[in-house]
Amino acid sequence: MASTVDGRKNFASSVCDFLVKYGFDGVDIDWEYPVTGGDPGNAYSPQDGINFVLLLSEMRNQLTQLALDINPRQIFELSVAMSPNTQIAKYTDVAAISVIANYIHVMTYGKHFMITNSLSTLNKLIVPKPSIGIFDANNLTHYSAAEALQYYINRGADPEFLAIGATFSGKAFKNVQGNFNQANMGLGLNFTGTPAVGELPGMIDSGIISYNGIKQLMSSATVSKSARQLRNEYGYMDYSSSSGVEPSSSGVEPTSSGVEPTTPVGPPNVFSSYYDNTAKNNVLYNPSSKVWISYEGIESLVEKCNFAKANNIQGGLFIWDISQDRDNTLINQLKGIIN
Question: What superkingdom heads the lineage (predicted)?
Fold first, then answer.
């Protein structure tokens, strides 16, 4: 479609028709991925990067004309979703796209690669030193959300029009092998599979669990001290049970990792909850079933909000996707933080 003039014109025209018919005020283009192809079987070409810019240019022209035809004060926004992986992003002209698009959404979430067979957190916000980061099986390097955003800025993106990606889902792994403890929170341990749909509440695909399901697991989870401290400070109820009562403390002093065990609630086969203060990410682990889940809870989302504010990322956060937080638990808390 993007490789021909007619294909680009027809696609842009159909998007404009859709916006008018259903009352939308913009469109986000998520091409996964130019040149590298994305999923197995996807067609790709060395010209994809150039054609991507041409496609966006055609869409911008038609959206501008549509606004003039309907209401000169109407603005139809055009945004693009981009990979945080520099080995994928390098095939796109970031500077050119920055001129065309209203916002660049960097998909800084969901970075697990099954090929490694070892656990890493869903998203790492800050890298304290080059040797610490998330293993990327595509290019055998380490990276973080902070580094991904800096990459786009270095290539011509204005931070005013960048947005940080967050997710209302988690990645689940089973048959975790090795010694899980409060110091390592399971990072680097091997696993041999992922839970299928139906094995855990809220599973939306193999190894992918919605925040709706995570909340069900957390209703009987023990809570780390760092999570409880943050909730008390901001008034969040992220880890409470369905009755709104926090699990009682065991009175055990915090370990050197900053994690305090608490008395389990419910049956013995429960998840324990941890917050990784280095990666700025949340972890659930069930020592009986050997299931390990990395997700973005309110602690991680607070860190992303603070990072956006501190670094003038004025596009803020975008979420994939809001349906995975059915009762708006996280959205409502984020609204208070951002405001």
Answer: Eukaryota
Q: Is 195 part of a structural domain of the chain?
A: no
Q: Is the peptide bond before 39 cis (omega within 30 degrees of 0)?
A: no
Position 320 in a domain: yes
Q: CA–CA separation, 278 vs 88, rounded Å?
A: 26
Q: How many domains does the chain have?
A: 1
Rounded CA separation 147/49 (Å): 22
Comparing 306 with 117, the larger pLDDT belongs to: 306
Is residue 169 predicted with pLDDT exceeding 80? yes
In a domain, 305, yes or no: yes
d(CA 82, CA 163): 10
Sign of CA dihedral 264, 183, 305, 142: negative
CA distance 161 to 315: 5
**Helices of type H across the chain:** 5-22, 48-70, 86-89, 94-100, 145-154, 211-218, 225-234, 298-310, 329-338
For residue 229, is it within any domain? no
For residue range 30-84, what is the model confidence (pLDDT) as tens digits? 999 999 987 888 888 999 999 999 999 999 999 999 999 998 889 999 999 999 9
Q: Can you list the alpha helix ranges (DSSP code H) found in 196-265? A: 211-218, 225-234
Asked if residues 209 and 150 have their Cβ atoms less than 8 Å apart, the reply is no
Closest listed residue to residue 298, CA positions, set 237, 247, 241: 237
Distances (CA, A) of 292 to 123, 177, 190, 194, 228: 15, 10, 11, 9, 20
Span 257-274, pLDDT tens digits: 333 333 333 344 588 888
